[in-house]
Hints:
Mean pLDDT: 86
Number of helices: 9
Low-confidence stretches: 1-42
Shape: extended
Helix content: 40-55%
Strand content: 15-25%
Amino acid sequence: MKNKLFSAVGLFAAAAMLTVALAGCAGGNQPGSSETSGESSAETTTGDYSYVKLGDYKAIEVDVSKTEVTEEALDERVSAGIKEAVEFTEVTDRAAETGDTVNVDYTGSVDGVEFEGGAAQATDIEIGLGGYIPGFEEGLIGMKTGEEKDIDVTFPDPYENNPDLAGAKAVFKMKVNSIKIKIVPAEITDEVIKGLFDGQYETLSAYRDFKREEMQTEYDDQFENDRRNAIYTKLMEICTVDTADIPQAEIDNYVEMRKEDYMSYLTQQGQSQTNEEIDAFLGEHALQQENLPTMLIFLAIADKENLSVSDEEYQTFLEEEAANMQMSTEEAERLYGELFKLSLLQEKALDIIFDSATTVTLPSVTSE
């Protein structure tokens, strides 16, 4: 959920490394507060957020579907797990077929010119899996170990991985190093399971129980993620900020807080802008809904709930994030001190909102 809430922070390379990020805020003074990073014993909200329209964020109700584990889906998961555990057997007496895993070297070119990302060595490709552009895997069918061949393909249009190649006709020089298959035992007994998983599971039933629990955990996690996303969406519907009402001082503060990050980003990209261009860009960026308006909504909620961040909470978070970003705590605090405090306030506000919400679980969705 955290990634969704503040995904806009990914605009800046440094901020994108944060595990919890309140979009549009790093370093500098906190909006609505004159305190600076690390100077207070506890971070609290003290600003005037009367221009933020807060709905009843403690009375949100959402409908969320929950997937249940079916025997059919469990059978498929168990079969896939068993196949994954089976070791490859090399094939030497025939050509490659659909379903085989072929180890290949390949080099692609367009109009005789090799292109970036178009070559690989000793790569395993499962024919028929559909992991490559149309015609690529199919071109391997009928090839034998040691054989070399040119395969003509056409890149899809559009082609998101590399738009420059969209619709282009290409030639791939292929060499097959080996052909492998997995031979799954016709009868899966307890002994087979013990052998495949080195005794980790004593019986087939035990392995099925493990896979059932694994699937249920996945579905439970997905349900909680969907629930929180639904609550957040409702929250943004009932809590609003008219950008015309945001004080200019808040926008200016936002610009100053983001400037160092943005300038660092430009440097990394080999770009440059004038100070006026930077201010104009960040000023526009501030008013995007997911940035300053969202930040102000959470600050207003935190202010209304009298939330605070203790020195201990802040220091723990600071040290964790500094380690994640591989920088000193001093540097992390200088760049992101207020961001961290605001992130912690936001997290506390969200805890209240999520805990207060009513969730209606819709009829179960059949797992696939």
